[in-house]
Every structure is written in structure tokens, then in C-alpha cells.
Amino acid sequence: MEIKKVMVIGAGQMGGGIAQVSAQTGWETVQYDINMDLVNKGIALIDKNLSRNVSKGKMTEDEKAAILGRIKPSVSLEDAADCDLIIEAIVENFAIKEKVFKELDRIAPPHAILASNTSSLPITQIAAVTKRPDKVIGMHFMNPVPVMKLVEVIRGLATTDEVYKIVEEASIKMGKVPVWCKDVPGFISNRVLQVMINEALWELYEGVAPAENIDNIMKLGMNHPMGPCELADLIGLDTILSILNVMYDGYGDPKYRPSPLLKQYVNAGWLGRKTGKGIFDYK
Start and end of every 3-hydroxyacyl-CoA dehydrogenase NAD binding domain (predicted)? Predict the structure, then answer.
């Protein structure tokens, strides 16, 4: 199957980034969210990202205009009716994803592949709410999507080799490096990453050191480009808590038990950069 038209569900940081890369690949791209304000906000961020590339000489104004011209704003899931690949990038909440995938399964053409950008929820469980579990797969992009090269490709229990191959080739066309893994809680990336971030938050909670010191240890001593506290704020503390909860429930291992401080920050609405305050203050 040749991919010609893509729909991205969710116009937030991840969804907008995926839509941008899809349009840059040359595909007609539908950018969907639940209201036009969110869609316009997402497209405005894409415009800003592309303008930065123009100012750096990485693309021309004509190329930028062509990319934006391939992005169609949408507030209706019915626009999935003629899409070849639909990538969901919404909140890490299974009940919400379940509702969306049931609708997409009803609307999308029989050949369409339904992909999820979930960072931790089981692909097999998501696939099971559809009548096409063989065509459901995980495409876990990294943040920021236009910059990061990796796509973690997760095969559900029923995902066919053909669907995996199509998604693998699509990822390469998008300028990404696809790396596959089995459908386990947290996959590869977050099973490793979130333990480190959570441990940093436990250290912060226990008063071992301030956040700046924890980050400097990892940046200057371990050659990490960004410390775990700064990275947590970039990802979003609510997202991190959701991922840790999925892994704690999935494995029953106390090493995934979220730090009480993480829960406290999320309850306070201190979610990181997106709210102006998290572990660090961005206001």
C-alpha cells in the first residue's frame, strides 16, 4: 500500500510535530483536534518551526508555503474516510483512546492503518477495541518530533508483517530511524528513561540534592545533553506520572512506583514547561 494521505489526531506538541513531518514528507495531511482553536494553535506552532528553518537557510519561503499548503485543519473524525494512515497523538488515557479508535475504525477505509503515538499503553489492548487489530500499530515519536530521529515501532499481538513493513518504510520516508520492540508496558524507551527520571524525583523528594545539582551530575558526569529534571519538565510531569502508573500496574514492580513529589506537582498543576512551572520555574 502506498501512503498518500495521513491524518494526525491531536494538535498538541506531539501531534503538531507529527503533522509537520508528515507534510514535509510530501503527504497530504489532516490535522485534527476537538476544536478549531486547538487546531489553529498547533498549525501556528508548525508555521513558527518552519519560519525558523527558513531563517536558518534550511528551506525557502516557497518550500514552507508548500508544506503548510499540504496541512488541512479538521475538527471532524469523519475526515479519516479517505486516509491511508491515521496517527493518534492524544492524552495518555486508555478510555479516551478507546473511544477515538472505535470511531476511526468505523470511519477509516478498510485498508487504512491505525497507529498510536502512545508512550506506554498496550497496543494490543488498543487494537482489541477495533475490528482491524491486524492493522493497528504503535508509532512512538520522540519530542521534539521534527528534530528527533527515532520512531519506536510497537507491534501488537495481531499486527501483521505487512503492516509493520509499511510503517517501517513510512518512518524512513519521514526521515526517521524506526526501531521495533514487543508490546510491553513502557516499551524500550520509557522502561529505561522513566526509571531514571523517577529516581531523580525521589532524590529531590528525599532532599539528597537540589534539582540543579542532580541535572549537573547527569550532564557533566554522564554526558547527558539534558538532566532528568529538565527533561521531565520538557516531557510534562503529568505524562511521566501516567507512564509510571502504566508500568507499575503492568509489572507490579516497586521500582516503577511514582515519587510522591511527582504526584504532588501534578496535583498542583505544575506540569513543566507547558504550564510555566514544574520542577523549575519558567515564568
Answer: 5-184
Q: Given 28, 88, 92, 152, which residue is catalytic?
A: 152
Q: Say which residue the cell 495481531 belongs to.
A: 158
Catalytic residue selected from 116, 171, 190, 259: 190
Domains observed in the chain: 5-182 (3.40.50.720), 190-275 (1.10.1040.10)
pLDDT band at 283 (very low <50, low <70, confident <90, very high): confident
Reported as a single tens digit per residue, the pLDDT across 182-192 is: 999 999 999 99
**Active-site residue among 22, 28, 116, 140?**
140
* Active-site residue flag, 140: yes
Question: pLDDT tens for residues 182-218?
Answer: 999 999 999 999 999 999 999 999 999 999 999 999 9
Residue 206 among the catalytic residues: no
Q: Would residue 74 show up in a list of annotated catalytic residues for this protein?
A: no
For 49-88, how does the pLDDT look when each residue is reduced to its tens digit (9 = 90+)? 999 999 999 999 999 999 999 999 999 999 999 999 999 9
Model pTM? 0.93
b/e sequence 124-143, b meaning 16+ C-beta within 10 Å: bbbbebbebbbbbbbbbbbb
